[in-house]
User: What shape does this take?
Amino acid sequence: MKIRSTFTLLIFAAISIAANAQNKVKNVIFMIGDGMGLSQAYAAQTHKGEQLTLFQFPYVGLVSTYSANNYITDSAAAGTAISSGVKTNNGIIGITPDSLHHTVSVMEIAKQKGLATGIGVTCTVTHATPAAYYAHQINRGMNEEIASDLLLSNIDICIGGGRNYFEDRTDKKNLSNLLRERGYDVVYNLEEATNTSNKRIIGLLADGELPTISENRGNMLPQTTGLILNKLDKDNKNGFFVMIEGSQIDWGGHANNEQYIINETIDFDNAVKIAVDFAKKDGNTLVIVTADHETGGMTLAGGNIENKIVDSKFSTGNHTATPVPVYTFGPGAENFTGYFDNTEFKDKIIHLLDLESKRR
Ligand SMILES: [Zn+2]
Assistant: This one.
C-alpha cells in the first residue's frame, strides 16, 4: 500500500512536470485600460449587470505607477516603465530621464528575437501608450517624429487613428507610401485590413483621434483585437507580443464623465474577452490586463446593483497616484500577483517568453 501510493505520487509529479513543460508561454497579449482603476472597472460591471471578463481572471495583483519625476505619472512615463522597465520623466517616450539613452521595449526585443508584434488602440497610433512600445522621443507631443519611428520599428500590425501624422506632415513626406515600399498594406478601414492576405498592416482609421463609443466607433477595438491575433497566429512559429489599449477610458476620466468611462471600459472588456477566448483555445498564450494609472480619482460613493446604477464622484480632472490592479490569465499568470512596480513587467515577460536565450 505504502509503495503503491508513493508510486502513484511519482506518476502525478511526472504528469504535472510534463504539463508545465507543455504550457510554455509562446504568445503574450498585454492589454492596457488607460486610466482604468478599480472604480472604473466596477462601475462598468455594475452598469452592465454581469461580471466583466477581467474580473473572471484567476490571478490579480497591484502595481505602483509613479514616474521618475512625479508621484503621479502620465501615460508617456508609465508606458515607458511598463514597456521598457525604466522610470522616466512625465512626457518622455522611451528615453531615460537624463535624456541620454534610448530605453529598449519588450516589443523591440521580441521583434529582434523573431516574434511577430502588433498594436491596436482607440487613440492615434502615435499616442503616448502605443508610442512607448516603438518610439524614442523627448516629448510625447512630437507626433510626426513618433510616426517616423513607427516606420523604423519593423512592427507587423499597428491599428488606430492618426493618419494625418503620416500623410499631412510639415516635412511633406508621405510615410504611408514609404511604409508601402517596405511591404506594408496601409489601410483606412478594418474591412481592408481583414481582406488583405498581407501580414504587415498599418491601419490608420481616422485623420486624428478615433471617435468615442457613443459616437460611432462601434466594435472597432474587439474587432481589431481579433484581427491582430488571428493574422499573427498564422504560421506563428516563434510566437507574438501584442499590445491592445482601451485608450479613451482615460479621456472619460479627465472629463469626469461616468457614462463615457463605463462605455469605454465595457468596450475594452469586450476586447479582453476576445483575447481570453483566443488564449483558452491556444493554451500557450498569456493575457495580462492592467492600467498605466488611474484617472479622475473616481470613487463609487453610492449605487445599486439591481438597478445597475452607480453614483460616481471625482476628486480631480487629472491622473492619481493610486496603484492599479493587474489581472492575468494563462500560463505564467501566477507571476503577476502581490504588489509590484510597473517597471517589473518587462523582465517578467522576457523571462516567461524565454527571450534571454540567443535563439528560440
Ligand atoms: Zn490621461
